[in-house]
């Protein structure tokens, strides 16, 4: 690349984390367990038997971590609030939990950074799971109640609110394939859970509107799949339609006011007739949002495969297989193709005209290491971030209204079912000493943020 690619003025250069993945201190100050604390104690659920008990000890080291974000000159920091810290037992607000996020938000702002708050990044309170969790409609109401508590406390200082992070994962990895907490495998339940999550989103949005200043930005972060068909043959195109339906449109369409897609209803009819949708639900779910968060890591390529049984994380996917698109892969074995992000952003901007887009997560795990001179030369991550930011630029040029980008993740952290094995951080964490090392990728990212441009490499 010979010239710099400049981003629109005001473009937000952020980085992101999630509470369970970094905080540790799982029993501190009155916190009670979440479904992830439970899951990580089930033999075999998490690689190496890892747990989030200590994680990056961010609950104690948060000042140091925020200082790194400031030193990198980033404009935005996306974090999530741990529901079990706020409401450790039914109906009782934990002052110490609220105080933690209050201090965090004040310090983020003092450092000149914009806080972007996610209300739910998968750490459901275990006692609520014991009462049925997202299987129950009532959980949507409880979620909105919790959202309102936080809005009352932080609404004067946090401008951007994201309700749910990646409801596809909560519904279909948590209740379909069972690789995420609470580890259930029941496609009919997973579809009901998807609806209750969306109901929680919509109910929370309405509640937030009543509390937050009119200038607040309310959003939802989806891990949209960029699905391509292996060929233009009708059966391959139909395979792509199915995956697009149950991964993307089942969330996007109701949120954008179009209700559940008819073709998805047909694909999953053996599991459910959507009888869980009650009058008024779709209006609630369509509550106006101010931006949409897109989390993107890797493209999907699918092919018609008549012998293939339903893939548990994709209800209605019988007769479909995912195939290797042949790109280089990350340590997660996820193929890397930045052009898929351009296509995805253009698709979202066509689907949701007028709705600003934030890339709320993008990044990669690689097996990087600390060199003797104290540096982490993670060139593959730098290249990944560079190419995906160029892909964002490619989407903005023809008109996608992308307002910002958040590198996942600030820190190496607990990568859910993969434990500490996979390092996504732009900052390295030594889990023995808790020492942080700013990786070369973070330095490169900081330089682009300072220039508001991708500089020639
Ligand atoms: C996202 N998939 O998770 C999450 O928001 C982060 O907490 C996580 O660390 C990050 O991506 C990296 O994995 C995903 O199987 C987990 O398609 C799994 C999938 C997608 C996203």
Automatic annotation (TrEMBL):
Show the catalytic activity: Hydrolysis of terminal, non-reducing beta-D-glucosyl residues with release of beta-D-glucose
Active site per UniProt = 361 (nucleophile)
Which Pfam families does the UniProt entry name for this protein?
Glyco_hydro_1
Domain of life of the organism encoding this protein: Bacteria
Keyword entries, A-Z = Carbohydrate metabolism, Cellulose degradation, Glycosidase, Hydrolase, Polysaccharide degradation
What is the enzyme's class at the highest EC level? hydrolase
Q: What is its EC number?
A: 3.2.1.21
Q: What InterPro entries does the record tag this protein with?
A: GH, GH_1_N_CS, Glyco_hydro_1, Glyco_hydro_1_AS, Glyco_hydro_1_beta-glucosidase
Which family is annotated? Belongs to the glycosyl hydrolase 1 family.
Under which name does UniProt file this protein? Beta-glucosidase
Organism phylogeny: Bacteria, Bacillati, Actinomycetota, Actinomycetes, Micrococcales
């Amino acid at each position: 690349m010979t010239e710099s690619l400049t981003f629109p003025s005001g473009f937000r250069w952020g980085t992101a984390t999630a509470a369970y993945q970094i905080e540790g201190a799982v029993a501190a100050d009155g916190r009670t367990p979440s479904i992830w604390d439970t899951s990580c104690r089930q033999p075999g659920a998490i690689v190496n038997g890892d747990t989030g008990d200590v994680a990056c000890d961010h609950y104690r080291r948060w000042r140091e971590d925020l200082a790194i974000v400031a030193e990198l000159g980033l404009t935005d920091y996306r974090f999530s609030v741990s529901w079990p810290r706020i409401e450790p037992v039914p109906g009782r607000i934990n002052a110490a939990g609220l105080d933690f996020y209050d201090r965090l938000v004040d310090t983020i702002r003092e450092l000149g950074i914009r806080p972007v708050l996610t209300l739910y990044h998968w750490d459901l309170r275990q006692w609520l799971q014991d009462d049925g969790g997202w299987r129950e409609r009532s959980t949507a109401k409880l979620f909105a109640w919790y959202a309102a508590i936080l809005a009352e406390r932080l609404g004067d200082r946090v401008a951007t609110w994201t309700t749910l992070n990646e409801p596809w994962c909560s519904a279909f990895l948590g209740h379909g394939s069972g690789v995420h907490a609470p580890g259930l495998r029941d496609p009919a339940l997973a579809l009901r859970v998807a609806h209750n999550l969306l109901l929680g989103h919509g109910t929370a949005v309405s509640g937030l509107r009543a509390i937050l200043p009119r200038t607040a930005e309310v959003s939802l972060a989806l891990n949209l799949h960029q699905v391509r068909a292996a060929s233009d043959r009708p059966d391959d195109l139909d395979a792509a339609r199915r995956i697009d339906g149950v991964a993307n449109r089942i969330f996007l369409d109701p949120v954008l006011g179009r209700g559940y897609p008819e073709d998805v209803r047909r694909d999953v009819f053996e599991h459910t007739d959507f009888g869980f949708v009650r009058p008024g639900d779709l209006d609630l779910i369509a509550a106006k949002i101010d931006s949409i968060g897109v989390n993107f890591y890797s493209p999907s390529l699918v092919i018609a495969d008549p012998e293939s049984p339903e893939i548990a994380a994709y209800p209605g996917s019988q007769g479909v297989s995912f195939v290797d698109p042949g790109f280089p892969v990350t340590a997660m074995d996820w193929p890397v193709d930045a052009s898929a992000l351009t296509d995805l952003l253009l698709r979202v901007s066509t689907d949701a005209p007028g709705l600003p887009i934030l890339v709320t997560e993008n990044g990669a795990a690689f097996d990087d290491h600390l060199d003797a001179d104290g540096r982490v030369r993670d060139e593959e991550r730098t290249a990944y971030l560079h190419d995906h930011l160029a892909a964002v630029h490619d989407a903005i040029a023809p008109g996608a209204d992308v307002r910002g980008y958040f590198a996942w993740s600030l820190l190496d952290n607990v990568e859910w079912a993969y434990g500490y094995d996979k390092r996504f951080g732009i900052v390295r964490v030594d889990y023995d000493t808790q020492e942080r090392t700013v990786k070369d990728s973070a330095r490169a990212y900081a330089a682009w943020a300072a220039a508001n441009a991708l500089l020639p490499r």
